[in-house]
Input
Amino acid sequence: MLPDKSFPSYAYLPGKYPHPVRDPLGHSYRTDPVTVAVGEELESDVFRWGIDLFNHGYYWEAHEAWEALWHAAKQSAQHRLFFKGLILLAAAGVKIREGKRGAVARHAGRAAALFRQIARVPNGPFETALGTTLAALAEHAEAAVASPLVLRKPKPGQPEPVFDFILAPNPRASDRQP
Output
Protein backbone atom coordinates (compact mmCIF):
# COMPACT_ATOMS: atom_id res chain seq x y z
CA MET A 1 0.00 0.00 0.00
CA LEU A 2 2.93 2.34 0.63
CA PRO A 3 5.46 1.64 -2.11
CA ASP A 4 8.09 4.03 -0.74
CA LYS A 5 8.44 2.09 2.54
CA SER A 6 10.47 -1.04 3.09
CA PHE A 7 9.53 -3.71 5.58
CA PRO A 8 11.75 -4.08 8.64
CA SER A 9 14.72 -6.44 8.38
CA TYR A 10 13.01 -8.86 10.78
CA ALA A 11 9.66 -9.46 12.46
CA TYR A 12 10.23 -8.91 16.16
CA LEU A 13 9.46 -11.67 18.65
CA PRO A 14 10.32 -11.00 22.30
CA GLY A 15 13.41 -12.84 23.45
CA LYS A 16 14.34 -14.04 19.97
CA TYR A 17 15.55 -10.88 18.23
CA PRO A 18 16.93 -7.51 19.30
CA HIS A 19 14.25 -5.18 20.65
CA PRO A 20 13.50 -2.92 17.67
CA VAL A 21 13.62 0.37 19.60
CA ARG A 22 15.71 -0.21 22.74
CA ASP A 23 18.53 -2.38 21.37
CA PRO A 24 21.24 -0.70 19.23
CA LEU A 25 20.87 -3.66 16.82
CA GLY A 26 17.10 -3.12 16.58
CA HIS A 27 15.57 -2.36 13.20
CA SER A 28 14.02 0.87 14.51
CA TYR A 29 16.70 1.98 16.95
CA ARG A 30 16.96 5.76 17.18
CA THR A 31 14.12 6.43 14.77
CA ASP A 32 12.02 9.49 15.43
CA PRO A 33 8.64 8.89 17.04
CA VAL A 34 5.70 9.04 14.66
CA THR A 35 3.18 11.83 15.05
CA VAL A 36 -0.24 12.04 13.47
CA ALA A 37 -2.57 15.02 13.39
CA VAL A 38 -5.68 14.59 15.48
CA GLY A 39 -8.63 13.80 13.23
CA GLU A 40 -6.51 12.39 10.40
CA GLU A 41 -5.78 8.98 11.90
CA LEU A 42 -7.81 6.83 9.50
CA GLU A 43 -6.48 8.61 6.40
CA SER A 44 -2.87 8.66 7.55
CA ASP A 45 0.05 6.81 6.02
CA VAL A 46 0.79 5.57 9.55
CA PHE A 47 -2.56 3.76 9.65
CA ARG A 48 -2.00 2.24 6.21
CA TRP A 49 1.55 1.27 7.12
CA GLY A 50 0.17 -0.54 10.17
CA ILE A 51 -2.20 -2.44 7.88
CA ASP A 52 0.69 -3.38 5.55
CA LEU A 53 2.74 -4.59 8.50
CA PHE A 54 -0.18 -6.56 9.96
CA ASN A 55 -1.11 -8.22 6.66
CA HIS A 56 2.49 -9.34 6.12
CA GLY A 57 2.98 -10.78 9.61
CA TYR A 58 4.89 -7.93 11.28
CA TYR A 59 2.56 -7.87 14.26
CA TRP A 60 4.76 -6.14 16.84
CA GLU A 61 5.58 -3.44 14.29
CA ALA A 62 1.89 -2.98 13.36
CA HIS A 63 1.12 -2.63 17.07
CA GLU A 64 3.71 0.16 17.32
CA ALA A 65 2.31 2.00 14.28
CA TRP A 66 -1.25 1.85 15.62
CA GLU A 67 -0.19 2.88 19.11
CA ALA A 68 0.82 6.28 17.73
CA LEU A 69 -2.71 6.60 16.31
CA TRP A 70 -4.26 5.55 19.62
CA HIS A 71 -2.35 8.38 21.29
CA ALA A 72 -3.46 10.86 18.60
CA ALA A 73 -7.14 9.93 18.94
CA LYS A 74 -7.66 11.84 22.17
CA GLN A 75 -10.78 13.60 20.90
CA SER A 76 -12.78 10.47 20.07
CA ALA A 77 -13.54 7.60 22.44
CA GLN A 78 -14.69 5.49 19.47
CA HIS A 79 -11.39 5.98 17.64
CA ARG A 80 -9.41 5.15 20.77
CA LEU A 81 -11.37 1.91 21.24
CA PHE A 82 -10.91 1.07 17.56
CA PHE A 83 -7.13 1.51 17.68
CA LYS A 84 -6.92 -0.33 21.00
CA GLY A 85 -8.72 -3.26 19.36
CA LEU A 86 -6.26 -3.28 16.47
CA ILE A 87 -3.32 -3.08 18.90
CA LEU A 88 -4.69 -6.05 20.87
CA LEU A 89 -5.28 -8.04 17.68
CA ALA A 90 -1.69 -7.40 16.59
CA ALA A 91 -0.49 -8.43 20.07
CA ALA A 92 -2.47 -11.66 19.64
CA GLY A 93 -0.54 -12.25 16.41
CA VAL A 94 2.74 -11.96 18.32
CA LYS A 95 1.48 -14.38 20.96
CA ILE A 96 0.34 -16.88 18.32
CA ARG A 97 3.85 -16.81 16.86
CA GLU A 98 5.25 -17.36 20.34
CA GLY A 99 2.87 -20.28 20.95
CA LYS A 100 1.30 -18.68 24.05
CA ARG A 101 -2.32 -19.87 23.97
CA GLY A 102 -3.43 -18.05 27.17
CA ALA A 103 -2.08 -14.71 26.00
CA VAL A 104 -3.70 -15.21 22.58
CA ALA A 105 -7.06 -15.79 24.27
CA ARG A 106 -6.66 -12.68 26.44
CA HIS A 107 -5.59 -10.31 23.67
CA ALA A 108 -7.86 -11.61 20.92
CA GLY A 109 -10.83 -11.83 23.29
CA ARG A 110 -10.37 -8.24 24.43
CA ALA A 111 -9.97 -7.10 20.79
CA ALA A 112 -13.21 -8.86 19.81
CA ALA A 113 -15.07 -7.27 22.73
CA LEU A 114 -13.86 -3.79 21.73
CA PHE A 115 -14.82 -4.31 18.08
CA ARG A 116 -18.29 -5.50 19.15
CA GLN A 117 -18.67 -2.55 21.50
CA ILE A 118 -17.98 0.05 18.82
CA ALA A 119 -19.94 -1.89 16.18
CA ARG A 120 -23.11 -0.85 18.04
CA VAL A 121 -22.76 2.74 16.83
CA PRO A 122 -22.56 3.97 13.24
CA ASN A 123 -19.06 3.06 12.10
CA GLY A 124 -18.85 3.72 8.37
CA PRO A 125 -15.39 5.29 8.64
CA PHE A 126 -13.97 2.22 10.43
CA GLU A 127 -15.46 -0.19 7.92
CA THR A 128 -14.15 1.87 5.02
CA ALA A 129 -10.73 2.11 6.66
CA LEU A 130 -10.51 -1.68 7.14
CA GLY A 131 -12.47 -3.00 4.18
CA THR A 132 -14.60 -5.12 6.52
CA THR A 133 -17.19 -4.72 9.23
CA LEU A 134 -16.24 -4.50 12.88
CA ALA A 135 -18.52 -7.48 13.57
CA ALA A 136 -16.56 -9.55 11.02
CA LEU A 137 -13.28 -8.40 12.57
CA ALA A 138 -14.57 -9.45 16.01
CA GLU A 139 -15.38 -12.89 14.56
CA HIS A 140 -11.85 -13.15 13.13
CA ALA A 141 -10.40 -12.27 16.54
CA GLU A 142 -12.55 -14.90 18.23
CA ALA A 143 -11.54 -17.47 15.61
CA ALA A 144 -7.88 -16.80 16.45
CA VAL A 145 -8.60 -17.91 20.01
CA ALA A 146 -10.13 -21.17 18.84
CA SER A 147 -7.65 -22.04 16.10
CA PRO A 148 -4.83 -24.45 16.85
CA LEU A 149 -1.32 -23.07 17.22
CA VAL A 150 0.26 -24.86 14.29
CA LEU A 151 3.06 -22.79 12.89
CA ARG A 152 5.48 -23.30 10.07
CA LYS A 153 9.15 -22.80 10.71
CA PRO A 154 9.91 -19.55 8.86
CA LYS A 155 13.46 -18.42 8.27
CA PRO A 156 14.78 -16.68 11.39
CA GLY A 157 13.37 -13.19 11.70
CA GLN A 158 11.01 -13.55 8.76
CA PRO A 159 7.39 -12.55 9.26
CA GLU A 160 4.75 -15.22 9.44
CA PRO A 161 1.13 -14.23 8.82
CA VAL A 162 -1.00 -16.22 11.26
CA PHE A 163 -4.49 -14.92 10.57
CA ASP A 164 -6.72 -16.21 7.76
CA PHE A 165 -7.88 -12.73 6.74
CA ILE A 166 -6.33 -9.49 5.54
CA LEU A 167 -7.29 -5.90 6.13
CA ALA A 168 -8.03 -4.23 2.81
CA PRO A 169 -9.12 -0.61 3.13
CA ASN A 170 -10.87 1.17 0.35
CA PRO A 171 -8.45 3.40 -1.56
CA ARG A 172 -8.23 7.05 -0.61
CA ALA A 173 -9.47 9.49 -3.21
CA SER A 174 -5.85 10.58 -3.79
CA ASP A 175 -4.82 6.94 -4.49
CA ARG A 176 -7.48 6.28 -7.15
CA GLN A 177 -6.53 6.35 -10.80
CA PRO A 178 -8.44 8.88 -12.95
